[in-house]
């Protein structure tokens, strides 16, 4: 179950912080102990990113920081002054779900749904990284997102569908090792 | 998590002075280790100095024909670097075998080298651990210990070092560049880590207040023909049971001129298998030589009941990695 440690209640702290979250400028004053995940969930009421393990092992807290996917539980909010954050709440455009979200629904790529926001955000990043050229590559590059319901085959199918629809993605680096 | 003051200096001298001047201060870079330590009560700094604002993430050519990798370069950035991939493939492979894409986007080269052991008795503070509290005892000695050391352990500690990157750097003869409050130091990676002996809490030669600022890779002839092989309990996103970084330089006659073999997750520090290297030099790189190197790699191993399997695993993993380099695997 998600744990709630004392840092979660440490609002009204001393460190000022400006974030651009899902396209909206937000200003916070936080205790230095608050993780980015707690700042999003408890400070900004964006509860899409989930607190699963709170140790970087499950990926349920995955968000984009300046376009890069990271575990928001493993980083302090105060380290990201001026950063642009995208959570699962920021993926839809004008009420239309992101293609990855549509594909997850179409392929039933979830059971309980707790890991799904992290899976979806991670998949969006994976597609941008150009790491969805085969099922094996999708599995490897989604390895930071665990699904205790083991919806993995459907998650891979959903991502494969979006990758196929988008065509070959731009490469972000050299060939796979 | 205990309260701490937070500072984000915009120059390195200020950052180093801030930590050097306060025994309860520490650096933070990617945060993927320190944040967990603070949550778990393994670290309780009173001041956290963020290096994130400093320009220490570039990958540059050195005048000697090697590469200098800034300490704040993220794991992903180094793994994707074209020069790293072409000239030091073992390094890119080790980085991509480590952690998850999310962690590789955050974790830095310097922080990776300063990871602490994944020994469950160290991480779970309800167990006695000499590394956390000297004299408390070692729960791994009496409890299940299949993740633990077969080389270099002591009565006080048999935990293994978890970094893949450090194993690759050991096989590449890398040097760690340090900035202290008074001076800079260059430490060969082979001398950077300490064996536990009776002081398992001391893991590196880093002094309080010193920061890793870069890692330098020499222009070694063996670097381009190099591989990293990692054996885990699941296919991805797991720490190694055993890993091998191997690099081989072949002469025009096809014989091994020089070799580097380093092992991961078998000792409290990345472990150089010099006997295995010696077993290769002067020979054709073939299955027989690879098998001999595998046997030599485990000479002197001191396994405990739960780690005996690692000896077999290392022997085969070394031979298999050399087979991949030789092109017959």
TrEMBL record, chain A:
<dbReference type="GO" id="GO:0046872">
    <property type="term" value="F:metal ion binding"/>
</dbReference>
<dbReference type="GO" id="GO:0016903">
    <property type="term" value="F:oxidoreductase activity, acting on the aldehyde or oxo group of donors"/>
</dbReference>
<dbReference type="Pfam" id="PF01799">
    <property type="entry name" value="Fer2_2"/>
</dbReference>
<keyword id="KW-0560">Oxidoreductase</keyword>
<dbReference type="InterPro" id="IPR036010">
    <property type="entry name" value="2Fe-2S_ferredoxin-like_sf"/>
</dbReference>
<keyword id="KW-0408">Iron</keyword>
<feature type="domain" description="2Fe-2S ferredoxin-type">
    <location>
        <begin position="15"/>
        <end position="91"/>
    </location>
</feature>
<dbReference type="InterPro" id="IPR001041">
    <property type="entry name" value="2Fe-2S_ferredoxin-type"/>
</dbReference>
<keyword id="KW-0001">2Fe-2S</keyword>
<dbReference type="InterPro" id="IPR012675">
    <property type="entry name" value="Beta-grasp_dom_sf"/>
</dbReference>
<dbReference type="InterPro" id="IPR036884">
    <property type="entry name" value="2Fe-2S-bd_dom_sf"/>
</dbReference>
<dbReference type="Pfam" id="PF00111">
    <property type="entry name" value="Fer2"/>
</dbReference>
<dbReference type="InterPro" id="IPR002888">
    <property type="entry name" value="2Fe-2S-bd"/>
</dbReference>
<protein>
    <submittedName>
        <fullName>Periplasmic aromatic aldehyde oxidoreductase, iron-sulfur subunit YagT</fullName>
    </submittedName>
</protein>
<keyword id="KW-0411">Iron-sulfur</keyword>
<dbReference type="InterPro" id="IPR052914">
    <property type="entry name" value="Aldehyde_Oxdr_Iron-Sulfur"/>
</dbReference>
<dbReference type="InterPro" id="IPR006058">
    <property type="entry name" value="2Fe2S_fd_BS"/>
</dbReference>
<dbReference type="GO" id="GO:0051537">
    <property type="term" value="F:2 iron, 2 sulfur cluster binding"/>
</dbReference>
<keyword id="KW-0479">Metal-binding</keyword>
Automatic annotation (TrEMBL), chain B:
<protein>
    <submittedName>
        <fullName>Periplasmic aromatic aldehyde oxidoreductase, FAD binding subunit YagS</fullName>
    </submittedName>
</protein>
<dbReference type="InterPro" id="IPR016167">
    <property type="entry name" value="FAD-bd_PCMH_sub1"/>
</dbReference>
<dbReference type="InterPro" id="IPR016169">
    <property type="entry name" value="FAD-bd_PCMH_sub2"/>
</dbReference>
<dbReference type="InterPro" id="IPR036683">
    <property type="entry name" value="CO_DH_flav_C_dom_sf"/>
</dbReference>
<dbReference type="InterPro" id="IPR036318">
    <property type="entry name" value="FAD-bd_PCMH-like_sf"/>
</dbReference>
<dbReference type="InterPro" id="IPR051312">
    <property type="entry name" value="Diverse_Substr_Oxidored"/>
</dbReference>
<dbReference type="InterPro" id="IPR016166">
    <property type="entry name" value="FAD-bd_PCMH"/>
</dbReference>
<dbReference type="InterPro" id="IPR005107">
    <property type="entry name" value="CO_DH_flav_C"/>
</dbReference>
<keyword id="KW-0285">Flavoprotein</keyword>
<dbReference type="InterPro" id="IPR002346">
    <property type="entry name" value="Mopterin_DH_FAD-bd"/>
</dbReference>
<dbReference type="GO" id="GO:0016491">
    <property type="term" value="F:oxidoreductase activity"/>
</dbReference>
<keyword id="KW-0274">FAD</keyword>
<dbReference type="GO" id="GO:0071949">
    <property type="term" value="F:FAD binding"/>
</dbReference>
<feature type="domain" description="FAD-binding PCMH-type">
    <location>
        <begin position="1"/>
        <end position="222"/>
    </location>
</feature>
<dbReference type="Pfam" id="PF00941">
    <property type="entry name" value="FAD_binding_5"/>
</dbReference>
<dbReference type="Pfam" id="PF03450">
    <property type="entry name" value="CO_deh_flav_C"/>
</dbReference>
């Amino acid at each position: 179950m998600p744990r709630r440690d004392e840092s979660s209640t440490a609002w009204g702290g001393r460190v000022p912080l400006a974030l651009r979250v899902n396209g909206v400028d937000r200003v916070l004053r936080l205790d230095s102990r608050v993780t980015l995940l707690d700042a999003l969930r408890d400070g900004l009421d964006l509860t899409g990113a989930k607190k699963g393990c709170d140790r970087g092992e499950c990926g349920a807290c995955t968000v984009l920081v300046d376009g890069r996917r990271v575990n928001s539980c493993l980083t302090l909010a105060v380290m990201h002054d001026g950063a642009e954050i995208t959570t699962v709440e920021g993926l839809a455009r004008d009420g239309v779900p992101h293609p990855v979200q549509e594909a997850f629904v179409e392929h039933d790529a979830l059971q309980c749904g707790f890991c799904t926001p992290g899976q979806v955000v991670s998949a969006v990043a994976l597609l941008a990284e150009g790491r969805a050229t085969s099922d094996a590559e999708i599995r490897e590059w989604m390895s930071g997102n665990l699904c205790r319901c083991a919806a993995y085959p459907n998650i891979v199918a959903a991502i494969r569908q979006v990758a196929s629809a988008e065509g070959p993605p731009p490469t972000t680096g050299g060939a796979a090792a | 998590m205990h309260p701490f003051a937070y500072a984000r200096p915009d120059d390195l001298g200020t950052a180093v002075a801030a930590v050097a001047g306060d025994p309860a201060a520490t650096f933070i870079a990617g945060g993927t280790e320190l944040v967990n330590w603070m949550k778990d009560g393994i670290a309780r700094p009173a001041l956290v100095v963020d290096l994130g604002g400093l320009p220490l993430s570039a990958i540059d050519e050195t005048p000697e024909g090697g590469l200098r990798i800034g300490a704040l370069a993220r794991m992903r950035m180094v793994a994707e670097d074209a020069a790293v991939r072409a000239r030091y493939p073992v390094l890119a492979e080790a980085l991509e075998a480590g952690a998850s894409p999310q962690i590789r986007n955050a974790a830095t080269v310097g922080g990776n080298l300063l990871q602490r052991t994944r020994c469950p008795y160290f991480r779970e503070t309800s167990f006695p651990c000499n590394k956390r509290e000297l004299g408390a005892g070692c729960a791994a000695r009496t409890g299940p210990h299949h993740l633990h050391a077969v080389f270099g352990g002591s009565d006080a500690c048999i935990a293994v070092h978890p970094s893949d990157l450090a194993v690759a750097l050991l096989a590449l003869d890398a040097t760690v560049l340090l900035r202290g409050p008074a001076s800079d130091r260059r430490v060969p990676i082979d001398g950077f880590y300490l064996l536990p002996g009776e002081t398992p809490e001391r893991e590196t030669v880093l002094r309080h207040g010193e920061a890793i600022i870069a890692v330098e890779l020499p222009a070694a002839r063996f670097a381009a023909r190099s591989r990293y092989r990692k054996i885990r309990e699941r296919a991805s996103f797991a720490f190694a049971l055993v890993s091998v970084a191997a690099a081989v330089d072949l002469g025009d006659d096809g014989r091994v001129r020089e070799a580097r073999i380093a092992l991961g997750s078998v000792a409290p520090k990345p472990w150089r298998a010099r006997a295995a290297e010696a077993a290769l030099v002067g020979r054709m790189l073939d299955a027989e030589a690879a098998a001999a190197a595998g046997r030599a790699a485990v000479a002197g191993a001191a396994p405990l009941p739960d780690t005996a399997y690692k000896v077999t695993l290392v022997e085969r993993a070394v031979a298999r990695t050399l087979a991949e380099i030789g092109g017959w695997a």
